[in-house]
Amino acid sequence: MDMKKSLSNHTHSPNLEEYNDPTMYDMENDEFDGDFAFIEKWASLMGGTLIDLACGTGRTANPLAEKGYSVIGVDLHEGMLERAKLKAEEEHTDIRFELQNCEELELDMKSSMIYMVGNAFQHFLTNEAQDKLLRSVAAHLKSGGVFIFNTRFPSAEELLQAAEEEYWRTYVTDDGKQVDVYTTSHYDALTQVQNYIIVRKMKQDDLTIENELRTTIQLRYTYPMEMERLLARHGFRVIELYGDWEENPPVDSKPELIYVCQKEKELDMN
């Protein structure tokens, strides 16, 4: 199989169209750095080369490299990865970027720390996809190494949102345009997948709507007890679990779950 061709086809799937404008993605997400201190703390504890899965445009990989950490960034979206490379060049950081599917990693090394932030775990929509991801992680993690990731908390408030369009946030583009972002969602309880429509309303100087951009994305929600059993099946033990990046305990009033999982043993999953 031509891996690059396969990845290119994958990047045009409906679940990735939200990332087809990497510049817009950065405008909406670059200011978020709430996870950085947590990731850096563990990077300093574990040492060695870090693997940043679903690294996107390098939001976390670049500042880690600036601080002297060795980082490999992996993503299957070619456009996002190209922007990550450009930003690394501009910031003079030395990062190895790999265009690969996280479910089928083929790296020539093992790490003491692999991480996946931005709730990217929710992009693995099926049991098979989650299994393949965790097998890939385990295969590239040293015994005793850690896998850190976050996922939105599957609370009733999160899942049972109203069907009508809801305001999410506003930001200003590099050329001074205001963009209001709205979402609608529908939760499929059988698949545990939330189907989102995201509407961006670009406004003119007089704040009238100039145009609208609609994208869709699907996100899988995994319950805590379900996650614990899934991780154990792949040889991981949850050593820390938080409700936010400030290390507060998980409760259903917190928006997400932060997992620190240790690889305990090698498993034969064949």
Topology:
Elements: H1 3-10, H2 22-29, H3 36-46, E1 50-53, H4 61-66, E2 71-75, H5 78-90, E3 96-99, E4 111-116, H6 127-139, E5 141-152, H7 156-159, E6 166-172, E7 178-188, E8 193-203, E9 209-220, H8 224-233, E10 236-242, E11 256-263
Tell me the structural class: alpha/beta
Number of strands: 11
* Largest sheet entry: 7 strands, mixed
**Strand order of the biggest β-sheet:** 3-2-1-4-5-11-10
Describe the structure in your own words.
With 270 residues, this protein is α/β, with parallel strands linked by helices. The chain has eight helices and eleven strands. Strands 3-2-1-4-5-11-10 form a seven-stranded mixed beta sheet, with helices on both faces. It has a four-stranded antiparallel beta sheet with strand order 6-7-8-9, with no helix packed on it. A hairpin with a 4-residue loop joins strand 7 and strand 8. The radius of gyration is 19 Å and the shape is globular. 28% of the residues are buried.
